[in-house]
Write a structure and sequence with these properties.
CATH class of the largest domain: Alpha Beta
Oligomer: single chain
Radius of gyration: 22 Å
CATH topology of the largest domain: Rossmann fold
Number of strands: 10
Structural class: alpha+beta
CATH architecture of the largest domain: 3-Layer(aba) Sandwich
Distance between the termini: 61 Å
Strand content: 15-25%
Helix content: 25-40%
Length: about 240
């Protein structure tokens, strides 16, 4: 039986930091898979957590190392869109191009920035170094727009299967918020029809499709009739936007 590899850490960074492995099974070079993984996990960690996210097919190129700070968390990652789904979830954040090379492990290799660039940045952040010391704030960081579900009719949302995991589970772009919003649209539509306000109902559906369900990626129909199993009991608390 082959022995498991051992990784040790010997540093002078001093903080009593706890290292948590979220995932080391992201598909090789798959930035979207990395974006999904970190976006689904980071919010469960306490305030002040430093998240190092390394899915970096552009290592050794001109892509920038980023330090992104939200209201509760820090993220250290290459500027290749791997934090795109975090950007969508966080209303307030700042992104800095890390140019303070004195924080890097020298000499910096062309192929192992996880060791020479990102790990030292994460360690210094954990030690309490002010994010402003790492570099200037930037606004033109790379981000991609994740596909959004589309309302096909009152009973169907059309979405995209973003990933099939090794257990056969399908990860789609349809969230509980989307399903709750769709339920509210349908309920309002039925109420309007019953009271002879079908024109207002059609306007409401058009608005929903335009504002909430606009999508250019549509590859998978998911049909359901209420009640939807697994939805939170208070959908109104999840659905966003004035109704």
């Amino acid at each position: 039986m082959a022995k498991k590899p051992i990784i040790t850490l010997t540093t002078d960074f001093e903080p009593e930091a706890e290292i948590v492995d979220i995932c080391h099974s992201v598909q090789a070079f798959d930035v979207l898979d990395g974006a999904l993984t970190i976006s689904q996990a980071y919010s469960y960690f306490p305030t002040g957590t430093v998240h190092m996210v390394i899915v970096d097919p552009g290592v050794g190129t001109a892509r920038r190392p980023l330090l992104v700070t939200s209201e509760r968390h820090h993220f250290v990652a290459p500027d290749n869109g791997v934090l795109s789904l975090v950007y969508q979830k966080e209303e307030r954040l700042s992104a800095r191009h890390v140019t303070g090379e004195h924080y890097f492990l020298q000499p910096v290799s062309n192929t192992f920035h996880g060791r020479d660039v990102f790990s030292p940045i994460a360690a210094y952040l954990a030690k309490g170094v002010d994010p402003a010391k790492f570099g200037e704030e930037v606004k033109d960081f790379v981000r991609f727009g994740a596909p959004k579900p589309k309302a096909v009719n009152e009973n169907t949302l059309r979405g995209v299967v973003l990933k099939v995991d090794r257990f056969g589970n399908l990860i789609t772009n349809i969230t509980p918020q989307d399903a709750c919003f769709s339920q509210r649209i349908r309920a309002r539509s039925r109420s309007s029809s019953a009271s002879g306000k079908s024109r207002k109902s059609r306007t409401l559906m058009r608005r929903a499709r335009r504002e909430k369900f606009s999508a250019s990626w549509a590859a998978w129909d998911i049909s359901r009739s209420p009640p939807i199993a697994g939805l939170p009991p208070n959908c109104s608390a999840l659905a966003k936007g004035p109704m």
